[in-house]
Design brief:
The chain is α/β, with parallel strands linked by helices and about 240 residues long. Helices cover about 50% and strands about 10% of the residues. Helix 2 packs antiparallel against helix 3, helix 3 crosses helix 4 and helix 8 packs across helix 9. The longest helix has 19 residues. The radius of gyration is 18 Å and the shape is globular. Bound molecules: magnesium ion.
């Protein structure tokens, strides 16, 4: 039976913060809004907190995608059309594909040994664009984007959908690899799938959501997978 690795995309394979910064810089320039570290950090903080609300079911995807710009312009006291901003930003973001350190060699190595899948909470056309720009689709058996499924990580329904679309899926043969406790690790716990958190800064985990494994470098993942699956997938 093939062993399965379910990879989160943002900040696990692709460096979301670099991509976000590049896209936001282009967008703000086009709208004649000052591009400062302060503005980029503020936007990033607003965006992050809105996605957390989506994970908790407090906002819809459409609300996140426009409210984040409304909130940003409110806070900096500049008036711009948030729908137009959303369009410009998504167009730019869908072309950004900076890799997390070690991600590409890792995929090239792992896809020969395991069945790899992407599980992402992103926006479909943006993630499709970035995956195409990064030329990584060939390493994955399938790509699950929550926007297309209509359910988000960490909900059990998201993972039920994935399981139903992977032939002979058995949770014991799978592991989730991702950077987010509230999305990837909680999702794994909800779905009964082993988890490995990628935590490059060794950030303190205040969430109370504990992964089965943790790595700070992607290059440490192959050893963990080998050991885990050698033990028959027991945690
Ligand atoms: Mg992530």
């Amino acid at each position: 039976m093939s062993k399965i690795v379910l990879f989160d995309l943002d900040d696990t394979i692709l460096d979301f913060h670099k991509c976000e910064k590049a896209a936001l810089t282009q967008t703000l320039k086009a709208l004649d809004v000052p591009v400062t570290e302060q503005n980029i950090t503020l936007y990033s903080k607003i965006n992050d907190s809105m996605w957390k609300k989506l994970e908790r079911g407090e906002l819809t995807r459409q609300q996140v995608l426009t409210n984040r710009f409304e909130e940003f312009f409110n806070q900096i006291g500049i008036c711009r059309d948030s729908l137009k901003t959303k369009t410009l930003y998504e167009q730019s973001l869908s072309r950004q594909c900076y890799f997390v350190e070690g991600a590409l060699p890792l995929l090239k190595h792992l896809y020969k040994k395991y069945d790899l899948y992407i599980i992402s909470n992103g926006t479909a056309h943006v993630q499709d664009g970035r995956i195409a720009a990064a030329k990584i689709a060939k390493y994955f058996k399938d790509i699950f984007i929550s926007d297309k499924i209509g359910k988000n990580k960490p909900s059990k329904e998201f993972f039920i959908y994935c399981a139903e679309h992977i032939t002979n899926f058995d949770p014991k043969d799978a592991i989730i690899v991702g950077d987010s406790p509230s999305s990837d690790i909680l999702g794994g716990i909800n779905a009964g799938i082993t988890t490995c958190r990628y935590n490059p800064q060794n950030a303190e985990n205040l969430s109370g959501i504990i992964p089965d494994y943790q790595i700070s470098r992607l290059s440490d993942l192959p050893k963990i997978l080998e050991r885990h699956f050698k033990n028959g997938g027991e945690k």
